Amino acid sequence: MSKKIASGCDAIILDVKLGSGAFMTDMKQALKLSKTMISIGENAGKRTFCLITDMDVPLGNTIGNALEVIEAIETLKGNGPDDFTELCIHIAGAMLYVAGKCHDLNSGRDMARKNIENQSALKRFREFIRLQGGNPNVIDDYSLFPCAKESKVLLSNTEGYIRKMDCKRIGVTSMELGAGRKFLTDVIQSGAGIRLHKKTGDYVNKGDLLATLYSDDVEKLDKGEALFLESIEFDMERPPQRSILKATMDKDKTEILCFPELVC
Questions:
Q1: Mean pLDDT over residues 217-232, rounded?
Q2: Could you list the residue range(s) of the whole structural domain that residue 227 is in?
Q3: Please, are residues 53 and 248 in contact by the beta-carbon 8 Å criterion?
Q4: C-alpha torsion sign, points 129, 5, 99, 19
Q5: Full-model pTM
Q6: Residue 135 shares a structural domain with residue 153
Q7: Which stretches within the chain are classed as H helix?
Q8: What per-residue confidence (pLDDT) applies to 263?
Q9: In degrees to the nearest 10, what's the CA dihedral of 156, 158, 162, 166?
Q10: What pLDDT was estimated at residue 14?
Q11: Are residues 107 and 59 located together in one domain of the fold?
Q12: How many structural domains are present in the chain?
């Protein structure tokens, strides 16, 4: 919060993650954290708004540095994964709402959706890159991004619905592939990571493609395969459909969308 307050912004939007891939694994903890952050922001004179969002399922279809940036650009082009696109619209809509550009969250989401559809958001991102001294051509030519030297496809030896994916373990898998640091001296491989072809709720036949792993090191691919396959649980019954937005909160109101048994 100190960095956000020091940046000179007028309002702060916080995306508080909840689930196996987040620090907060319990809804009550997430609500408590959100209230604390809102209190800090409001006491500093910043209008503060929190969204509590799902992290029990990997967000989007990629994990890794260059892979995620490309996916974000595809989302601005209107071609992003449904869950990641939905989250971006929720967050952008909240930003527009607290900035006073619309009268409620729904109208903010409509504005965000429209600016993806008419490519205004993509145009602004291109300008962001230019103003920071980057190369805007990466938006049109993904070959300019770092690419891993090696890859490995993972096929399913099980049939059924994916009941659960351990997001923390999948994150560790990506780190082991080189996309993150295990030790301070580790060198990050910008092209390393994971592309998901199946996610929670999808039905999988034996031999179906589950994921593609990327790394500069072949040995890391073997270790990554074992870790990734350990992160998935199958069931013959389809799991309930999940909502990415769990709750919203500001200093005046808490709206819980998926946990009606909780009272704030």
A1: 96
A2: 148-235
A3: no
A4: positive
A5: 0.91
A6: no
A7: 2-6, 27-43, 65-76, 82-98, 105-117, 120-131, 167-174, 218-230
A8: 40
A9: -70
A10: 97
A11: yes
A12: 2
